[in-house]
């Protein structure tokens, strides 16, 4: 992985078994550490909205 790569990662559910593939934008790679933004399209306000969050 490199900075600015857009990848699909499997994210496990915490409260139940299973998980889903989710899009992630790689922010920084440093040794064994990867910082990334999760990408979501929650339509909260009636329009398409992309939110980024450090994870």
Number of strands: 4
Query: Termini distance?
Result: 16 Å
Taking all Cα atoms into account, the compactness measure Rg is 13 Å
Uncertain ranges: none
- Strand percentage lies at over 45%
Major β-sheet, in short? 4 strands, antiparallel
Number of helical segments with 4 or more residues: 0
Shape: globular
Q: Give the ordered list of helices and strands.
A: EEEE
Helix content: under 10%
Derived from helix and strand composition plus strand pairing, the structural class reads mainly beta
Mean pLDDT: 78
Strand order of the largest sheet: 1-2-3-4
Walk me through the topology:
Layout: E1 6-12, E2 19-30, E3 33-40, E4 51-54
Antiparallel strand pairs: 1-2, 2-3, 3-4
